[in-house]
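Forgive a beginner's question, but would it be possible to get a protein, spelled out as residues, together with the matching structure tokens, please?
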Amino acid sequence: SVARDEPDWLLAHRLAALERYHAALWPSGAEEEWRRFPLKDLPDAHLSDLQDVDHPPSEYGSVPLAASRKGLVFDRMLNVAREHPDVVRRWLPTGDGIASHTPFRALADALFAHGSTFLYVPAGLHVELPLEVHKRWSAGAEPIVFRTIVVAEANSSVTLLEETSSERGAPRLAVPSLEIHAGPGANVRYVGVHSFADDVWEIGQQNLISARDSSLSSFNVLVGSARTKLGVLSDIRGDGAEVKLYGLVAGADHQRIDVNSLQLLDGKGSTSDLLYLSALYEAAKAVYYGVIRVEPTSSGTGSYQECRNMLLSDRAGADPIPVLEILTNDVARCGHGATAGALDADEMFYVMSRGMPRLEAEQLLVRGFFQRVVERIPEPQVRARVLAALAPKIGRVAELDAVA
């Protein structure tokens, strides 16, 4: 903090977070969220390497001039802290989050560095074009620790595309932290494309907080890393809010991608739906453990949890584990569905009978499998970026779509 010449209040925030980190209990493996993700081979993290301040990795897309004149703020976290300290101080404290992720959340709060982003949308402002930030880390062993904070005030709207990637070098730890605050009546769409190199252990957490009558859609596209552990909390705190949680997982080699989610529903007439789709090649493994908790003070809420896994190898595996905790008898709907299985042989035969080689037929079927999520991204340029990230797994079909 001193090396970056940060304000005193930001240093105090970091020190308080560091105290929470030291006081937090490290996951033991007995927690249901961590039972299938052992930490014994976690790469060493030399946190002193974060002192380097010369190589910020983020590239920001253009910001609409009219929106910036109306108070839109979209920049590196430290720049915003210096230029708009009151805004950052208000929103910098993190929420409680998923309890078993506390030490990693505290670590990100204390040591967030290059790649940290702050997006603030004032009340009533509608940002028509998607905002984009691309975060690329060069090869090295230093940890990757960053925070992204999105604040959409009442009756505003915004779409953010965040792409993260790294060059292959040495085993390293990545600890990304995302917080989204959707104010009353706000409409927020977040698309995160995770394309870290295959020597990275990514342990991230996302806190999505929704006020009354807001609409929040989150898309996680997980295609990179050696190991990924992602905890997603959706906390609905008002009546009539709507949350959609989407995920695409494309794993290969010996990748292990483990997602746990907690959907909290309170208030009246709110909805929270989740749809995660995985395509797993070679010896890749996907684990999903998700909980929907309907609070006793809620009424008329609707929620669903769906996890589908396509196994493209005899060595690939998937463990989908949905859980419902319904603490009231007044629900509109609440359910779940989970599957794991190989490509349908009849579908493969049908496609190949049209003259398509087996590899391209497989890619086409995976592309169609992912379409349920891809088609829910309304912006064509954002869809193109998602398909480009998936191209190494689903081949030229995605590449042609991206060009189109």
